[in-house]
Amino acid sequence: MVQIGFNFAALLGVALALLGLSLFIVGAIRPFRAGSLVQNLVLAVVYLLAGFILFFQGWRLDPILQFTQLLLIGSSAYWVVKELFYRS
Q: Is the full-model pTM beyond 0.70?
C-alpha cells in the first residue's frame, strides 16, 4: 500500500530527489576528474533513493525527525553545492 501525504517531509523528499538529479546532470556535464564522476553518480543515486523514500514514507515521521532530516539535507546540499561550484 502506498500512502502519500503532502507534508514537510514530502517536500524535503522532493528537494532531495531534485538535488540528486541536478548532481547527476551537473556531474555528467562537468566532470572534474575520474574519481569525482563516480562519486557524483553514487551520491546522486543515494539522494534519489532517499528522496523517494522520504516522499512516500515521510508521513510517518514525527516533527523532530522531520527537523533532523531538514538539517541533514541542508548540510549535504551545502556540501554538494560547494564541491560542484566552488572548486579552485
A: yes
